Here is the input.
Amino acid sequence: MAKTKELSKETRDNIVDLHQAGKTESAIGKQLGVKKSTVGAIIRKWKTYKTTANLPRSGAPRKISPRGVKRITRTVSKNPRTTRGDLVNDLQRAGTKVTEATISNTLRRQGLKSCSSRRVPLLKPVHVQARLKFARGDLDDPEEDWENVIWSDETKIELFGKNSTRRVWRRKNAELPPKNTIPTVKHGGGNIMLWACFSAKGPGRLIRGKERMNGAMYREILSENLLPSSRALKMKRGWVFQHDNDPKHIARAMKEWLRKKHFKVLEWPSQSPDLNPIEKIFGGS
Here is the structure.
């Protein structure tokens, strides 16, 4: 059966006015071209609620019961990598048939949404302790000390393809708990290698490696670009250079070169690229 067109507010008000004027439901229907049953319904609604406006509608009942909502919320809280298909099958085994869209809408009402897992370094207990020692050791350093640091790093730019992603169900501002992240290991290769540096005063030089970067190329990049960057940034006397614990950075030849050049190097904990603010410039590459 086709759905009838809803009467306008003006027509509903006319029905009430004619009713108050003493006309019958049949007469009102004939005069306005409205079914008698519709006229009667509008008059009854007006008598009950003293209005002809549309009342709030309850809408269709939820397809997932409160118990089912608790079930799937508990599931994704324990294992955020649970897929919508897994939840559909789980509810179906419990006697409730729903679509993946219903799952998404239900979890969204619980404050959960599907997000890409944040990639973070794979940390062993020794790495955790080293990071804590680093953070606590410099906790009370004045801001001026950090303004006198030149931060540096290399990054790879992939020209073809994208790194795989996984989606997790999580709440707002909950992207970093281990169960919501994907551990990564650096230096998996790439098509273009870049070196860059910056300080609190601005960016230094950005250099593209001509080939796979090794110790000799890294020393050449620093020799040609680190001091010019420090001068352009107007670093104060005694400025500190930061780089991570990549093997070519901590090789004996590299340490000896830095010592001869009288560069002061910031001690850096292993597996800690995320502590380097240059990652914000690279966009998390």
